[in-house]
């Protein structure tokens, strides 16, 4: 199972969080590095994650139309 580490950007849905993961890429022609951001919808059963937390999510079976990731419960690291 794949895991991703990112920042919680939204907790407005019930039992669902949005996690933004930043990756750096290199442009194929110009060789300049840039940052790309991807959003993942993750299942948060107990609503433990707060806005701005750094969390780890792991791949799971499809839980809804958009959710394909689950929050790893012991990995919540508060940014405050």
Plain-language structure description:
The chain contains no helices and five strands. Helix content is 0%, strand content 52%. With 80 residues, it is mainly beta.
What is the CA-based Rg, rounded?
14 Å
Mean pLDDT: 94
Largest sheet: 5 strands, mixed, barrel
The global form is globular
Tally the helices: what do you get?
Answer: 0
Residue share in β-strands: over 45%
Structural class: mainly beta
Tell me roughly what share of residues is in helical segments. Answer: under 10%
Give the N-terminus to C-terminus distance in angstroms.
Answer: 29 Å
Q: Quick one: how many beta strands?
A: 5
Strand order of the largest sheet: 1-2-3-5-4
* Poorly predicted runs of 5 or more residues: none
The helix/strand order is EEEEE
């Amino acid at each position: 199972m794949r895991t991703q580490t990112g920042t919680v950007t939204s907790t407005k849905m019930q039992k669902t969080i949005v996690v933004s993961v930043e990756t750096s890429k290199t442009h194929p022609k110009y060789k300049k590095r840039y940052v790309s951001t991807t959003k993942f919808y993750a299942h948060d059963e107990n609503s433990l994650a707060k806005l701005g937390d750094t969390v780890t999510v792991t791949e799971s079976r499809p839980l809804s139309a958009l959710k394909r990731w689950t929050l790893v419960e012991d990995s919540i690291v508060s940014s405050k």
